[in-house]
């Protein structure tokens, strides 16, 4: 008899009204639960406050971005204005153009160029490269392949993006005679950490020493196929035809 009464008492206790904290937890579960449409499609109903908290933490956004492909970022920026402002910097942070044509083929660079940190240009006409560099004020790394290397190109690069930390210059064409090129302007890149040169060109020893002296952050300078000379016979400053 006593055992039965005890069981009944326990059953009655289970039917007590939920507390305030229980209601709050139940409400949160309902908010986070995916909503079903008439077509039985799942719709994310995560509260906006939760999204704001996550996206306000840069470390979390970086972690999320590490698992997103470029096509994913392209889709995310089309969700709404908020997501566009969050993901656009990551979408345009690193750009690579395998073959640059005319400069007017890249109209969006004028709008999103400030987000570009790394830029790779291959088989590039100088007029196109110069146009892209005009809108990348925050560029940190430039990897560029020239058909022909002129001193004036290097001078303009250092003037337009003086904050560069990485500069890789590759001469794609194999010339019968090495071209003369001055790299003294590279010494103005005070934040330069890594520089790589692959070109059939003559470089002055004094210019190289100047780069070592003035680029205090320099950690790596690689020169391949270059010829180090004491003086240049003919410095080419002409523009690409």
Features:
241 residues, alpha/beta, Leucine-rich repeat, LRR (right-handed beta-alpha superhelix), 6-stranded parallel sheet, 10 helices, elongated, disordered N terminus, disordered C terminus
Overview of the structural elements:
The chain is built from ten helices and eleven strands. With 241 residues, it is α/β, with parallel strands linked by helices. The chain folds into two domains: 45-91; 92-241, Leucine-rich repeat, LRR (right-handed beta-alpha superhelix). A six-stranded parallel β-sheet has the order 3-4-5-6-8-10, with no helix packed on it. Strands 7-9-11 form a three-stranded parallel β-sheet. A two-stranded antiparallel ribbon has the order 1-2. Mean pLDDT is 76; it is low at 1-15, 27-34 and 235-241.
Helical content, roughly? 25-40%
Uncertain spans: 1-15, 27-34, 235-241
Shape designation: elongated
- Total separate domains: 2
Strand content: 15-25%
- Mean pLDDT across the residues is 76
CATH hierarchy: architecture of the largest domain: Alpha-Beta Horseshoe
Given the structure, what is the number of helices? 10
Question: What is the CATH domain class of the largest domain?
Answer: Alpha Beta
Can you count the beta strands? 11
* Amino-to-carboxy terminus distance: 106 Å
């Amino acid at each position: 008899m006593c055992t039965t009464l005890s069981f009944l008492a326990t059953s009655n206790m289970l039917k007590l009204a939920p507390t305030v904290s229980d209601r709050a937890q139940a409400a949160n579960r309902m908010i986070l639960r995916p909503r079903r449409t008439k077509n039985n499609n799942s719709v994310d109903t995560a509260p906006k406050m939760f999204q704001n908290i996550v996206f306000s933490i840069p470390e979390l956004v970086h972690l999320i971005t590490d698992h997103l492909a470029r096509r994913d970022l392209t889709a995310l920026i089309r969700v709404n204005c908020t997501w566009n402002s969050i993901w656009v910097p990551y979408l345009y942070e690193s750009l690579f153009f395998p073959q640059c044509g005319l400069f007017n083929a890249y109209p969006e660079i004028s709008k999103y160029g400030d987000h570009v940190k790394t830029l790779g240009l291959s088989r590039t006409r100088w007029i196109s490269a110069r146009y892209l560099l005009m809108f990348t004020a925050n560029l940190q790394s430039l990897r560029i392949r020239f058909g022909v290397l002129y001193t004036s190109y290097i001078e303009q690069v250092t003037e337009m993006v003086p904050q560069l930390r990485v500069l890789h210059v590759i001469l794609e064409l194999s010339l019968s005679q090495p071209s003369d090129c001055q790299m003294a302007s590279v010494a103005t890149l005070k934040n330069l950490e890594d520089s790589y040169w692959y070109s059939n060109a003559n470089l002055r020893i004094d210019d190289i020493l100047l780069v070592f002296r003035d680029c205090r952050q320099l950690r790596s300078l690689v020169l391949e196929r270059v010829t180090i000379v004491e003086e240049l016979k003919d410095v080419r400053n002409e523009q690409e035809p």
